[in-house]
Design brief:
It contains eleven helices and twelve strands. By secondary structure, the protein is of the alpha/beta class.
Length: 289
């Protein structure tokens, strides 16, 4: 156990050499890029304080967190808020489950208010694979309900695509049906780039098709040579540093800026997250389009 802790500390120290900052200035991309804390779930479980110090050292100013009390990777919500405040890290959005919003609305709202969060979303919609028309219509109804419940408290609901929504449907996909059947005021969307590329979709076309529905983005890249599908799942090792995978990131970032994406979050689920985050930040600071 001691050797594990030591190796973890060494990795933290090694990674801090590559600090590049999260506010990009030298390239074409403009925007303050936050971190989805799920990226460091294992490090937070081992040493929450050290993990968040690493986040600060990389130059991040904003984070997206989990909302429920059991989504803080071993930290209490008080410990998490105190740590964020100490390091001047602002939680601007949170992800949770649809059931938590629908069935424990008061608690969901209380937790959002506790952290000062105005955007609450879900990254996985409960369904029986494969997703079909009937399930999509049911989800759209539930999304509208969740959006209404949160809107009454000044909180915006959003849905984060995960890849299984792109089954063909009429002239488009089930994702198009989901867009059509959800209230634009109550339901916004967060594009996960990897989970858009993996099922064979073009992020740029999707951004431009629904320019007023997207509020945020998860910046992730899919390893070259990986063949995608509609399962919504792939090996975490296929999550690579931005700019090294299949995604045409200059085109994606250009489109995202042009339609006015408000928040960008790096989410890196890979085993090499501590090395890849600095690489991704360096890419964002120098990318040209």
């Amino acid at each position: 156990m001691r050797s594990l802790a030591l190796s973890t500390l060494l990795v933290f120290c090694f990674s801090s050499v590559f600090v590049s900052g999260a506010e990009t200035e030298t390239g074409s991309f403009r925007g303050s890029v936050g971190l989805q804390t799920y990226s460091l779930r294992n490090q937070i479980k081992q040493d929450g304080a050290k993990a968040f110090e690493y986040i600060k050292e990389q130059g991040f100013k904003e984070v997206e967190i989990g909302l429920a009390d059991n989504q803080h990777y071993g930290m209490s919500r008080e410990e998490l808020r105190d740590t964020l405040n100490k390091l001047d890290l602002k939680p601007v959005a949170a992800l949770t489950s649809l059931n938590f919003i629908l069935k424990q609305t008061d608690e969901a709202v209380a937790n959002a208010n506790f952290f000062g969060i105005k955007y609450v979303g879900i990254a996985w919609a409960p369904h029986k694979p494969p997703l079909d028309e009937a399930q999509t219509l049911k989800l759209a109804e539930e999304f509208n309900t969740a959006g209404k419940l949160l809107k009454e408290h000044g909180i915006q609901f959003f849905y984060h695509n995960h890849g299984y929504e792109f089954y063909p449907y009429k002239d488009g996909t089930l994702f198009d049906l989901l867009m059509e059947k959800t209230d634009p005021d109550l339901v916004k969307y967060q594009m996960d780039i990897l989970w858009t590329v993996f099922p064979g979709q073009d992020p740029v076309k999707l951004l431009r098709k629904y320019p007023n529905r997207w509020v945020s983005m998860h910046l992730k890249d899919l390893a070259k040579g990986v063949e995608g599908n509609l399962s919504g799942g792939t090996d975490a090792k296929n999550d690579v540093a931005l700019g090294t995978g299949q995604t045409d990131y200059p085109a994606v970032l250009k489109a995202a800026q042009e339609i006015g994406i408000k928040y960008y979050f790096i989410e890196d689920e890979s085993p090499g997250v501590l090395t890849q985050i600095p690489q991704s930040l360096k890419f964002l600071s120098t990318v040209k389009f």
